[in-house]
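Problem 12. The chain below contains 497 residues. Write out its predicted structure in token notation.
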Amino acid sequence: MTDMVGSRTLRSQWDETVRCYGRAPFLEYISVDDQVTVWTYEEMDRKVKQAANFFLELGVARQELVALHLHNTPEYLTCWLALAQIGAVSVPLNEHYQQPEVRHILEKCGIPRPAGHTVMTEEEAVKAADELGYPVLVRPSYVLGGQGMEIAYKEADVREFMQVITRNKVENPVLVDKYMMGREIEVDAICDGDDILIPGIMEHFERAGVHSGDSISIYPSINIEQKHKDTLVRYTEALAKNLAVLGLVNIQFVLYNDQIYVIEVNPRSSRTVPYISKVTGVPMVDLATRCMFGEKLRDMGCGTGLHPESDHYAVKVPVFSFQKLRDLDTQLGPEMKSTGEVLGVAKSFREALLKGLTGAGFQMKKKGAVLISVRDSDKQEAIRIGERFEALGFDIYATSGTANVLNRHMVATNAIRNVDEPSPNIIDLIESGKIDYVIATSVKGRHPELGSVHIRRTAVERAIPCLTSMDTVSALLRCLEGDIKIENCEMIDINSI
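Solution.
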């Protein structure tokens, strides 16, 4: 018997429930009090209570807040203890976020993490950033989709971000961590208290700093050495056991300077569970639920440790709705902006990537014109990007700073005026219809009047692909440089892989 409480779950899985609880007519978010009311109602029905269990772990970050509130509020403690008895929450949940406790667990397990501090005020954040050295990642606790997370490159950034975060009362610490621009890796695992099962290791195409939901995700990984895979399995097992996880856990790592660091641990399911379950054939939710009821992984037929890799590649590509969101800066970062995702599956990585990008709406134009405007830290990388577009026969346009760098390195580039210069300028060029791709990684901003934001918004509103990560540009070029056409790609039955 299943009772579902919430909004998104009710919209997508109402047919799997015996009773649904939601706020009509719009199915708004359910508060802690609402969920406790449901628990109390069900508790009064002894027959229902015997057949039904509540698993907060199968929700998302909001469910962690529910469990924490139940644990810390005396009148709800009985409810929390009942949940803990059936493995629906781990004890104590809050230690997964409180840095002193987490630091102790990581040190005990010998697992490195980026240096960081917890702060409550703007001045504390500035001091922490000075001690860590820029750039730093500033993020509030207990948020969905990286809401409020930003990378700060200078003190002014820290102050701006903290002012946004602290507009409302800050009840939980703000985290300030050293930012590492390495390769991000994600693992979803199941733990039964003794063993773990990792269906697969997912590698992000974009470097750390882009939210996992906005990154192109690859399974099986293509750039991770076996020694690092062994380390990932060892770290995942140590964390799951020391955090007393019973069921699902999501862990995000970064590979930086040949060393694995843990950057986030979520003792719950994640948005990648359906993806990795489909492409590996491991029914993660089913196995995790059975673990909560006391069964052992070794008896379930899927094995333990790292599941054997598939002989097919699966590439998850995010989908965005920027055309419908007026004045929003499209540049990707730690805060999630995608509204969906597509999956490309094939026997080769390039074909799977082509399927994914095409499904996400990219038009694979192999000739035309590309406009490049990048920040100083991306200019050296832009040289190789420009050479690859030039080799394909593209005409290249760029703002003055980027054009100077490209021309000095023998990449023929047409310099154009910037947004704040007289017409004809970069906006006129985008609106002319001559440009097929826009690469714009220059300054991110919350204000639509900023020149860099204006460039990206103009491209999106003209339905021109606008790429804000050099890694995403590289992924696109891998497809353009290949000789595979989407109409020639083999259809794959995902149930057969």
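Discussion. The longest helix spans residues 226-242. Students who got a different answer should revisit the alignment rule from Section 12.3.
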